[in-house]
Amino acid sequence: MSSVSILEQGRSLSLQLGGSTTRFHAVWLRDNAQDVDTRCPGNGQRLITLQDIPAYTRILAASIKGRVLSLMFAPEAKQVDYDIDWLLAHAYDRDHSRAPGWLGPELETWDSAMAGLVPSADFAGVAANPQALRVWLGQLARFGVARLEKGPVEDRSLFRVVDLFGYVRETNYGRHFEVRSEVNPTSLAYTSLGLQAHTDNPYRDPVPTLQVLYCLENSADGGDSLVVDGFRAALRLREESPEGFELLSRCCARFEYRGEDGVILRARRPMIELDPDGRLIAVRFNNRSAAAITDVPYDRMEAYYAAYRRLGEIVDDPAMAVSFRLEPGECFVVDNTRVMHARTAFSGAGLRRFQGCYADKDAMLSRLAALEEKLALEGAA
After folding, report:
1. CB distance 300 to 293 below 8 Å
2. Phi, psi for residue 31 in degrees, rounded to 5
3. Cα atoms in the 13 Å half-sphere on the side-chain side of 275
4. 376: how many CB neighbours lie within 10 A of its CB?
5. What angle (nearest 5°) sits at the alpha carbon of residue 147, between those of residues 355 and 372?
6. In whole angstroms, how far apart are CA 227 and each of 45, 236, 377?
C-alpha cells in the first residue's frame, strides 16, 4: 500500500510506502522536476534557475497511481509527475550523522589479506568486451587498484590502457614518463632505490587522480611493486588515535617540487582529506615531497608529528601491503587519491623499464556509469 499526505500548508509532503515514510519539501520537488520545461530531454540539464521557481512554491494536490506520484504546484498551477523509485533513490529524509572518516558502501578497504586477489583482467578481453570492461572498471572504482595482463610490449602501450576509460593528463613530465635509473635524476623514482609507499604528485592542486604504471622490461633482481590502501591506513589511525586522525585531517600539510628548471609546484592540503560532512575522500602521503609544515599551531605541532609518524608506521606495516611483480605487458592502475604505491630496491644487473602516466578518475567513473546504464538497458530489452 502507498499513500501521500500534504504537510505544512503545502510546503512539504509525506510519502508512505510499505510501512516506511519519507518526506520531501515542495521547493526540492519543484527544483527536481523532470518535465521538458524544466529539464532538457537530450542532456538532462536544467532549463531554469532557482530564481525562476517562486520562493513561496506550495503543493496544491498530490496523488499516486502505480509507481508515479503526481503533484500540482502553486502559484504556477503546474503539474509534475515523479517516478517513485527515483524519489526513493534520492531521498534525504534520513539520519545524516556519521563519524568523521566515513566511506560510502561503493568502496571497500583492504590490507595484505588481499594478496593474490588484486583485481586483474586480460587486456584484450576488456578492450573487446564491454561487460568485461565494466567489471574491471567497477573493481578499480571499488578497491582503488586493478591490474591488466597480456598487454602489448610496445613503447607507450600505456596510452591504450587509458583509452579504455579516459584521457591522459599531461604534466611537466610530459604525456608519460620513463621509470628507470638515470644519472642526476629529477626524481628519486628514476633511481634503483626502494621507495616508501606514497601517493604521487601531492604538490599539485588538483592532484592527478589516476596513475598507470606499465611494464616493458623487468629482468632486474628486485623491483617488486607494492600497494597500500591509504583509506584503510587512515581508518586504522582513527581507531588508534582519534586525536591524531583529527589533526591530520584538519591541519594542512605543504608539499613542494622543484626538481627541474622552470618548475616550482606547491600545494597546501591535509594528509587526510574529508568532505565538509566528514566523508573520507583523499590521502596525500609522500615524505619525499613534504615541505615545511607551518599551518599547525605551536601547542599542537608535537602531537601532529606524532600522528604523522604513526601514519607512516601504519603505511610501512607489512600487514598493510600487497606486493606483486609485473612482467612485460602487464600494468596496474591506482586511484592516486587513495592507494599508495611503492617498490623494492633493484639491482644494477638486468633491465627494469616501466612507463607511467596520469589520468583523471572522473572520466573513468563516467565510463563505468555509462557502461552500467547501457548494459542494464540492453539486459532489460
Report:
1. no
2. -65, -30
3. 11
4. 10
5. 120
6. 39, 16, 36
CA-wise closest residue to 215 among 95, 351, 24: 351
Which is it for strands 120-122 and 145-149: parallel, antiparallel or unpaired? parallel
Q: What is the DSSP letter of 329?
A: T
Query: What pTM, to 2 d.p., does this model score?
Result: 0.90
Overall residue count recorded for the chain in this entry: 381
For the chain, helix (H) and strand (E) counts, in that order, are 9, 21
Largest CA distance in the chain: 80
Give the position of cell 608535537. Answer: 302
Minimal CA–CA distance to 328: which of 140, 156, 149?
A: 149
The secondary structure element, H or E, covering residue 135 is helix 130-143
Cα–Cα distance measured from residue 91 to residue 93, given in angstroms and rounded to the nearest whole number: 6
- Residue 270 preceded by cis peptide, ω within 30: no
Q: List the chain pLDDT tens, one digit each, 381 residues.
A: 789 999 999 999 999 998 899 999 999 999 999 999 999 998 989 999 999 999 999 999 999 999 999 999 999 999 999 999 999 999 999 999 999 999 999 999 999 999 889 999 999 999 999 999 999 999 999 999 999 999 999 999 999 999 999 999 999 999 999 987 543 444 544 455 657 899 999 999 999 999 999 999 998 887 789 999 999 999 999 999 999 999 999 999 999 999 889 999 999 999 999 999 999 999 999 999 999 999 999 999 999 999 999 999 999 999 999 999 999 999 999 999 999 999 887 766 778 899 999 999 999 999 999 999 999 999 887
Interacting residues of 269 by C-beta distance below 8 A, sequence separation 6+? 202, 205, 252, 253, 255, 282, 284
CA-angle at 40, arms to 36 and 42, nearest 5°: 115
> Going edge to edge, which strands form the sheet with 58-65?
58-65, 68-74, 78-83
- C-alpha cell of 347? 639491482
d(CA 85, CA 232): 34
CA nearest neighbour of 11 among 43, 44, 55, 48:
55
- Which amino acid makes up residue 14? S
Domains of the chain with bracketed CATH: 2-89 (3.30.2020.30), 112-371 (3.60.130.10)
Q: Which of 201, 188, 141, 183 is nearest to 357 (CA)?
A: 201
